[in-house]
Design goal:
It is a single chain. By secondary structure, the chain is α/β, with parallel strands linked by helices. It has two domains: 96 residues, Roll (Urease, subunit C, domain 1), CATH 2.30.40.10; 305 residues, TIM Barrel, CATH 3.20.20.140. It is built from 13 helices and 18 strands. Helix 2 packs parallel to helix 3. It starts with a strand and ends with a strand. The structure holds fe (ii) ion. Fe (ii) ion binds next to loops.
Length: 423
């Protein structure tokens, strides 16, 4: 039996001995020690950790790499970012959006991110970015799964024609219904937007992923409405609340009622530590709030929590290279999640938990799954989180789509050069 690819000497999180992974026709067909079979291609993982690919559960591909266009975000707030994006929109071109998205995707694949859920602004009457990202999704489908969320950036009710434009984007083939209730004109309008958008998703049989309560206002409680509508419409497990930063500042008693309701509705939560550590707390003097949802408490409650990069070099965030381990590393600090089990949970939050939120089929390292995986220059999840190491090989459907040479410094302490890789 000829294999397409044999990945040898893999450290897997749930095995004590080195394993080989046999791939054929884009699928994993066997995982065992010392597989003896001919293969068209062989990769030696050399004892390094092999994991399923990284998943970015929350991104903005239409805005990425636009930093400085037309000006920089000087005060660093979310609202200033939204203003700058509004100024940029009339000058956007399809060619520019596509070129930036393709450049970003080359970074994503190099970093082993093979699934990305990206929001796309649907409040531009031309829906140009929607058309461009639908084209990018199709062109890149053999390399990376791109899931598009119809995101009414200016508010589906606040924007004239917001509901019609959202439907038009969904008609074109956008995958998921988005929203931004905290940006509507009033709390009531925010609640109303959640109801309308969840009904749209239920009618169309789609998932929901809303920017929800991305605010330091403890009374921003649209997650309560989102949870309620999920329950009412039977959308259990198909709804995600992104950001949820107001939860950081909410009253503890209120949160003790909220979290069990979220668990019951099987809400998926998407935390964005890099960007919200940057955007939140900007109206505070001292102490400055962290402004991240209560991830350890949500996880303890059995809620599926995953992480997103959110932005890279755009009006909201001036940094990043699409490294999901950098996102998890920031999470470990900002969320006080440095315990061994907690670090492993954060690794899962940028891999399997994200796959669950996106509803990815065939994800994972097991026979029958897609032959998608990453060989990291590390031996464990914890070491990977600490070092954010090189992605030695990134494999998609049994094909190597990116490779990075091992990173090692040569240090001479007086006795000759010594290789150092921090392990
Ligand atoms: Fe976002």
């Amino acid at each position: 039996m000829m294999l397409d690819l044999l990945v040898k000497n893999c450290t897997l999180h749930d095995h004590d001995t080195l394993m080989d992974i046999a791939c054929r026709d884009g699928k994993i067909i066997e995982i065992s020690p010392c597989i003896q079979a001919e293969a068209a291609h062989t990769v030696d993982a050399a004892g390094n950790l092999v994991t399923p690919p990284f998943v970015d559960s929350h991104f903005h591909m239409d805005a990425t790499l636009s930093m400085g266009m037309p000006r920089l975000n000087q005060d660093g707030t979310l609202l200033e970012g939204i203003r700058i994006w509004g100024e940029l929109k009339p000058d956007l071109t399809a060619e520019g959006i596509k070129a930036r998205a393709m450049k970003l995707l080359s970074w994503s694949v190099a970093r082993g991110n093979l699934a990305i859920r990206t929001h796309v602004d649907t409040t531009d009457p031309s829906l140009m970015a929607v058309d461009v990202l639908l084209e990018v999704r199709e062109e890149m489908k053999d390399v990376v799964d791109i899931q598009l969320v119809a995101f009414p950036q200016d508010g589906v009710l606040r924007c004239p024609d917001g509901v019609r434009l959202l439907h038009a984007a969904l008609d074109k083939g956008v995958d998921v219904v988005g929203g931004i209730p905290h940006f509507e004109r009033t709390m009531d309008q925010g609640r109303e937007s959640v109801r309308i958008l969840c009904e749209v998703a239920a009618e169309r049989g789609l998932m929901v992923d809303m920017h929800c309560d991305e605010s330091d206002d403890p009374l921003s409680r649209h997650i309560e409405s989102l949870t309620y509508e999920t329950q009412r419409l039977g959308l259990h497990g198909r709804v995600a609340g992104s950001h949820l930063t107001s939860m950081h500042s909410m009253d503890n008693y209120y949160v003790s009622k909220l979290l069990p309701l979220m668990a019951e509705a099987r809400i998926n939560c998407v935390c964005n530590p890099l960007v919200n550590m940057n955007l939140q707390g900007r109206h505070d003097t001292y102490p400055k709030r962290r402004g991240l949802m209560r991830v350890p408490e949500l996880m303890d409650m059995g809620v599926n929590v995953c992480l997103g990069h959110d932005d890279i070099m755009d009006p909201w965030y001036p940094m990043g290279s699409h490294d999901m381990l950098e996102v998890a590393h920031m999470g470990a600090h900002a969320l006080h999640m440095t315990g061994v089990g907690q670090q492993e949970s954060l690794f899962d939050a940028v891999t399997v938990n994200g796959a669950r939120t996106l509803g990815l089929e065939g994800y994972g390292l097991a026979p029958g799954c897609n032959a998608d995986m990453v060989v990291l220059q590390a031996s464990s999840k914890m070491e990977a989180l600490r070092l954010r190491p090189a992605r030695l090989f990134v494999i998609r459907r049994g094909r190597v789509v990116a490779a990075t040479p091992e990173v090692s410094a040569l240090v001479d302490l007086g006795g000759g050069p010594l290789p150092v890789d921090f392990r």
